[in-house]
Amino acid sequence: MAPEGAVVIQISVIGSVIAGVILALLIGGGCVALYLGLRARRAAASTLVANARLEALLGSAPALAMVVRTDGRLELPDRLADWLGLSPPPRYLDDLAGRDAGLTADDARALAADVAAAQKAGRPFARAIRTQGSSRALMIRGARAPRDLQAPGGVVLWVFDSTESEAEIARLAEEGAEARAAFQALTGLIEAAPMPMWYRGADMRLAMVNSAYVDAVEGADAADVVRRGVELVEGSGIGGPLASAVIARDTGQPQMQAMPATIKGARRMLRVYDVPLPVGGVAGFSIDIEDLEQARSGIKRFADAQRAMLDRLSAGVVQFAADRTLAFCNQPFRRLFAMKSEWLADRPEFDRVLERMREANRLPEVRDFPGWKAERRDWFLAAGGAIEENWHLPGGVHLRVVAQPLPDGGLLLIFEDRTEQVQLASARDTLLRVRTATFDNLYEALGVFAADGRLQLWNNKFRALWGFEETFLVTHPRVDALAEAAARQLAKPARATLIADLVRAATVERAQRGGQLEFADGRFFELAAVPLPDGNGLFTMFDISDSQRIERALRDRNEALEAADRIKTAFVANMSYELRTPLTSISGFAEMLSEGYAGKLSKDAHAYVDAIMESVERLGLLVDEVLDLTQHDGKTPDIEMLEVDLEAVARDAAAAVQPLIRRKKLDFAVEILPSVGSMKGDALRLRQVIEHLLRHAVGGTGEGGRILLHADGTAAAARIVVSDDGAGMSVDAVAHAFDRFAQPGVTRSGERALGLGLPLAKQFVEAHGGTIALVSEPGEGTFITVELPRR
């Protein structure tokens, strides 16, 4: 067992060790605590710096944050409250809507709904709002608050000031709308363009074509043409449409070339344009120049034909270009001015041509040739139209020169050789003197009046006939003054106006007129006015006194004959009326004898009585015809216009002449077609027409002959034909067949010696507006046609 002192020492050592260990632990713990404290201090300082940086970033950020807690409380900076126009800052979400500031009630309700949806479903949102009382536009983006924000169930709202953005967006939207409108207008214009237009992408493939392009290539629609890549112009090699487009794309310069193409089965010439675009594609369009090429070719052909025609003219023609060099001259010009073709081939200038003319002695003789040449050089710049001159060349040659400035600055010269015309003018002057001498010695009185009515020429007979003084005529008086001076020579002075009327008709109306005047001494003159080719009028007077006296005697005799004819007609009419009474008595007594009132008659007596009654009937018809002719005296008889069945009328007329037909044993054929129809007219007169024609045919046809009655018609007219195979009529008889009271020698032999039926038939036909025609030859029979209009 250890000693107690040793135990105490041992306990002390252990306590010291334990105390040392505790002290060491305390010192170590203090060091650790010091280290951790220093590290925490450094972390806190770093956190403060980071917080300061974050606050600085938040202060300069374009967006401000606002936290909305579950109970609706708000955490927002003062700057955001200032954006909303709220002071003091709102505490709850409902306080964002103010009367004159903050959000509108609608925006506040919509924002509250978005916040509630974000709290419940965690769905982020974005909303654009405007603050009241300012033009500030705000964009709010919201999402559920993160856990580190220590706002469980809350929502973080980021508010962006989009005022400038909204203005920029509005401006861009407006520009976009304008661009879309311009694009639509341009698209419409391209679509409506009458010429094919297209657009190629950078790969030279077709990307767009218009309707004209589709129509030209006969495609279904634009999409079909683009899909199939149908080219307007065939070929893609050198000089083809794609080659031109590639050159335009690579060089950046528009290209144009003329190429043929087949459009709707027709070969056309197109002028194709390829225009490079900034986007890398190439736009193209084509213009149909087929008509232009044809016109250009036609103009060239016309120019060639014109030059060929100018070579055939007798006048010399030379044309100078705008640079005053010779462009063309015809053969007469070369002959007229002795120009050699090899010299003209060098296209000499205008001045050299004039000098060559002078050397050939083909210019007028002038003192100052350079000045004269300068004046002619000014013809190129003349603004007053064509210039005309007369050149008198040595040797008696007369040239008419016409200088016509051309629109292109050139000059056209025409040289007309008028030497022969000048000689003819001299001969004409001699001829005029001969004409004047002849004019003065004519038997007729002549005067020539100008278009203004003034007397220009007269002969001695004209002056002597009217008794005019020479001093009066040399003043070239107007026709009105001349007629007034001539009135004293006339039996009726007022008739002097006839002179002015005739002259005016010849000079103004260009018509030939005539008339007669009686002088106070009993002479008669025939007047005539004839228009002359030069616009004047020729007035002539011819003495017809002798013929006038003979005409007056013939007129008196004609009046006496007409009076005798009227007396004869009245006498015949009276006699016809007087014959009716005895004819009626004879007819009555003959009927009484036939009926047996005077006793029974023998067979021969009956035949005699029948002959008497037949003769009375014929004589009665003849008297009626004479009365019809004399009552109307050639005038149109009165008719009653009613609906008439022409078939029935024709058959009644045929039945009326049947006794005559049977008596002469004639072959009578009746052909009445249904087409004859009906018309407006007088049934009695139309029946008389047919009867007269049939009786005329019976009278001219021998026993056993043939007569035809034919009737037909159309929608416009009805036709009646009566023909026979009798002896026919002579040419003279045909000419007078329709004359009233024709002489017996004129008509055909037979029962109707006076020929009253045809004149009556003609009167009745013409009264219905129709026509009657007769054709006959001796020995060939007679053919009579009547046409009656239905209207």
From TrEMBL:
This enzyme's EC code(s): 2.7.13.3
Residue ranges constituting the Histidine kinase domain according to the UniProt record: 574-791
Stretches that traverse the bilayer: 6-36
Keyword Transmembrane: yes
EC category name: transferase
Keyword Cytoplasm tagged: no
SMART domains reported for this sequence: HATPase_c, HisKA
Catalytic reactions on record: ATP + protein L-histidine = ADP + protein N-phospho-L-histidine
Keywords for this protein: Kinase, Membrane, Phosphoprotein, Transferase, Transmembrane, Transmembrane helix, Two-component regulatory system
InterPro entries on file: HATPase_C_sf, HATPase_dom, His_kinase_dom, HisK_dim/P_dom, HisK_dim/P_sf, PAS-like_dom_sf, Sensor_HK_Regulatory, Sig_transdc_His_kin-like_C
One protein family per Pfam: PAS_7
Superkingdom per UniProt: Bacteria
PANTHER family associated with the record: HISTIDINE KINASE, TWO-COMPONENT HISTIDINE KINASE
Protein name (Swiss-Prot/TrEMBL): histidine kinase
Organism: Sphingomonas oligophenolica
